[in-house]
Design the sequence.
């Protein structure tokens, strides 16, 4: 292996990028590349980028700036840019940054090895008809007992602020058979928890043996796989939570009691301007229906503050919705105008007002998160060990409710699913003791 070439990959943004990175690493592995965690040692650097907010995109150019001296010292170094910035900016990246050799959009990853072999400065941001996942090699270099599985990609919702429908393209679902095979393969390699991924995962409608299957049917089939203990899915749109998917949360013990269900705003006026196609009240009634079948479900959401036209009253409606729902955790962002999206044409809210609102919302969400964590103290939870903790004799994993849990368990092993009692809550995790001594 001394002549193996080294590949350094940096992944920005969402879990979909994490999954894509794994697949690109496999594809390059087939061409003799092994990964390194030091950019200085690399023969090729690949940046898998995110375009969702301005700050996320800017990171690419500051990282490329830092790669300049490395490329000067090592002229053969190949630099590739993948992901949603690659899709959105294409050849512009080659113009702006002379260190870049390759620009490859998310739908063209299966062509990356050919591009590397061809040499020269190349751009591929096509949306080819072939399915990249079929053409990329299967994942072999799995680490740990949890895995992501992309089941759907792209989005047809066109929320007024969002670049995803442009960078990831139209909604496409992968066929049921392939997903079941991939999931069985993961479980055979020791995976015990699978998170199904998609930009709009609950719009899943993949080809099954008898016509199109929805996400709930896929989940019900995956739940039958022997050895697979936990299922999750993300990210969902409220309008695609159909009756059977809600029912699945009551029926399937493998489906974990945690749901990321972004609402973005609590104001009907802003929801309309965002093209979300639901009201705050419809969202609240949906939450009630989900909690009716799974009362202990922990809900999470995304919020945008300072969307163009947002008034104090609109923002207050968001705070009211948050108080009404009671989230276990949530992400909140200041609106960031994205070129090419309809909302980017509208006059922005003053930055200091948006900053103040973000602080207020985050304070409320943090308080709710801490309350949800504290409510776990004294309760029994299941923890799937993912890695050793920072202290000796400690294991770290996630609970059913996706809380990070530190367990004092000197004989604990990665991949074990243990029962533990929660003793304390710290800012971002729980501390627990095992209920049964491990063998
Ligand atoms: N500005 C701020 N936040 C955004 N998001 C998507 N687009 C933007 C934008 N232009 C947020 C949404 C989405 C999450 C992934 O990122 O809340 O749910
Ligand atoms: Fe973007 Fe999500 Fe809206 Fe699709 S549903 S446009 S991915 S925010």
Sequence:
């Amino acid at each position: 292996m001394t002549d193996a070439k080294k590949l350094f990959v940096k992944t920005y943004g969402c879990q979909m990028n994490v999954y894509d990175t794994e697949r690109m690493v496999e594809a390059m592995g087939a061409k003799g590349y092994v990964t390194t965690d030091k950019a200085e040692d690399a023969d090729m650097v690949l940046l898998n980028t995110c375009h969702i907010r301005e700050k996320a995109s800017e990171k690419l150019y500051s990282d490329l700036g830092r790669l300049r001296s490395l490329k000067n010292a090592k002229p053969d170094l190949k630099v590739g840019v993948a992901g949603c910035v690659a899709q959105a900016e294409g050849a512009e990246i080659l113009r702006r940054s002379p260190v870049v050799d390759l620009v490859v959009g998310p739908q063209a990853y299966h062509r990356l090895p050919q591009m590397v072999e061809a040499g020269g400065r190349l751009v591929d941001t096509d949306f080819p008809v072939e399915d990249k996942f079929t053409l990329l090699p299967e994942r072999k270099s799995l680490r740990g007992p949890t895995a992501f599985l992309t089941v759907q990609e792209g989005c047809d919702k066109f929320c007024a602020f969002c670049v995803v429908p442009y960078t990831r393209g139209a909604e496409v679902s992968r066929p049921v058979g392939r997903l079941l095979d991939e999931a069985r393969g993961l479980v055979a390699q020791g995976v015990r928890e699978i998170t199904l991924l998609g930009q709009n995962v609950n719009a899943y409608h993949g080809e099954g043996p008898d016509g199109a299957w929805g996400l709930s049917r896929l989940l019900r089939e995956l739940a039958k796989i022997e050895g697979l203990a936990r299922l999750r899915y993300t990210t969902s749109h409220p309008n695609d939570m159909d009756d059977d998917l809600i029912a699945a949360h009551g029926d399937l013990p493998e489906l974990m009691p945690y749901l990321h269900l972004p609402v973005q705003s609590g104001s009907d006026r802003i929801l309309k301007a965002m093209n979300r196609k639901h009201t705050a009240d419809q969202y609240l009634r949906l939450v009630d229906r989900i909690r009716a079948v799974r009362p202990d479900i922990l809900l999470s959401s995304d919020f945008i503050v300072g969307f163009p036209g947002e008034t104090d009253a609109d923002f207050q409606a968001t705070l009211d919705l948050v108080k009404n729902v009671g989230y276990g955790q949530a992400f909140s962002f200041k609106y960031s105008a994205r070129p090419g999206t309809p909302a980017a044409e509208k006059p922005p809210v003053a930055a200091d007002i948006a900053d103040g609102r973000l602080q207020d919302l985050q304070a409320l969400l943090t308080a709710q998160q801490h309350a949800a964590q504290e409510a776990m103290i004294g309760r029994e939870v299941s923890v799937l060990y993912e890695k050793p903790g920072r202290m000796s004799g400690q294991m770290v994993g996630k609970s059913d409710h996706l809380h990070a849990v530190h367990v004092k368990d000197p004989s604990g092993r990665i991949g074990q699913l243990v029962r533990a009692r929660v003793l304390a809550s710290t800012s971002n995790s729980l501390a627990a003791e095992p209920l049964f001594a491990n063998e």
The pocket of iron/sulfur cluster (ligand 2) is lined by residues 155, 157-159, 162, 164-165, 199-200, 237 (CB under 6 Å). The mean pLDDT is 94.
